[in-house]
Amino acid sequence: MSGSAFDHATEAFSFIDRLDGLTSLDDVVEAVARTFSLFGFENFIMTGLPNPKERFEQVVLLRKWPMGWFDIYVRHDYVRSDPIIRLCKNTTQPFEWSEAPYDRATERKAAEVMERATDFRMRDGFCLPIHGINGYEACFSMSGVDLDLSPRTKPALHLMAMYAFERARGLLDAQTPAGPSLLTPREREALLWAAAGKSAADTGEILGITERTVTAHIVSACQKLEAVNKTQAVARALKYKLIQL
Q1: CA 136/CA 14 separation, integer angstroms
Q2: How far apart are CA 28 and CA 239, in angstroms?
Q3: Rounded to an integer, what distance in angstroms lies between the CA atom of residue 96 and that of residue 104?
Q4: 208: CB partners within 8 A, 6+ apart
Q5: 3-state secondary structure of 226
Q6: Which parts of the chain sit beneath pLDDT 70?
C-alpha cells in the first residue's frame, strides 16, 4: 500500500472514531465539513429521496449548502429534475456528478439545476446512493470546485460518507439492533477484514476458508444489518460496535 493510500485509509478510520464520540447533529455537520474539506469538498447534503407526495425539505437529514441555494432548490422543486437524484434512484454505486446523464437540449430544467448550482461553487461532486432493503432511498451528495477524486480517495470517501449517514440517522432514530450477538464470529471477522480493504479471496486466505464461504458470511451479515452492500454493512457494524478497528 502506498503512503498516500495509507493516509487516506488512516483519515477514514480516524474520522469514524471521531464520529463515535459525537452526540449532536451539529457536531456531525462540523466533523463532516472539516474532514471532507481535506478532499476539496465545500458543501454536502444527506437526504432521503422524496416520493411524488413528499416535498424535498421534508426528507432532508443534514445539510451544509451555500446560503440561498437550498431556498432556490426547494422553490423550483428541482429535486424532480435533478439528474443526480435521478441516478441515485437507479444505481447503488457511488458516482461523480459528471456521470449523471441528461440531455441538455430536451431536459432544460435538468440543465438549469446543474448550471445554477455552479453559481454557488457546486461545480463538481461525488454522490453516494443509499438503498435500504425495506425500500428506503436516500443519498449523501457532496460538491466543490477542486476535488480529489482519485481511485485511492474514492473508497475512503465512500466509507466515510456511509458511516456519517448512519451516524446521523442513529442520532435521529435511537433504535439499534440487538447487540454483538446479532452477527456470528465469522461474520464479524469477514466484515472486519473488509473494513481493512481485503477482498473475499484475501480474507479467505487469512482465515483459512474459501472465498465462497467469506462471501456467504458477508451476504448473511448484510441481510442481518439490512445493508445493501458490503460497505454499508461495515459502516453499520462499526456504528453498532459489532466490530472494532
Answers
A1: 28
A2: 14
A3: 18
A4: none
A5: coil
A6: 1-6, 133-134, 174-181
Domains of the chain, residue spans:
3-172, 180-239
Type of residue numbered 125:
G
Asked if the domains at 3-172 and 180-239 fall in one CATH topology, the answer is: no
Residue with cell 480529489: 148
Question: pTM, whole model, 2 decimals?
Answer: 0.72
Distance CA 152, CA 138 (A): 25
> What CA dihedral angle connects 88, 58, 239 and 26, to 10 degrees?
120
Predicted local distance difference test score (pLDDT) of residue 1: 38
What nine digits make up the cell of 55?
416535498
Q: Give 171: exposed, middle or buried? Use CB within 10 Å, 0-12, 13-18, 19+.
A: middle
Q: Are 49 and 137 in contact (CB under 8 A)?
A: yes
Spatial separation of the C-alpha atoms in residues 245 and 241, rounded to whole Å? 10
- The DSSP result for 97-165, as a single string, is GGGS---TTT-HHHHHHHHHHHTTT--EEEEEEEE-TTS-EEEEEEEESS----TTHHHHHHHHHHHHH
Residue pair 163/236 in contact (Cβ under 8 Å)? The answer is no
According to DSSP, the β-strands at 137-144 and 60-64 are unpaired
Q: What is the pLDDT of residue 134?
A: 67
- Amino acid present at 19: L
- How far, in Å, CA of 122 to CA of 144, rounded? 5
Question: Which fold does the domain 180-239 belong to in CATH?
Answer: Arc Repressor Mutant, subunit A (1.10.10)
* Among 51, 74, 47, residue whose Cα is nearest residue 61: 47
> At the fourth CATH level, which superfamily is domain 3-172?
Transcription factor LuxR-like, autoinducer-binding domain (3.30.450.80)
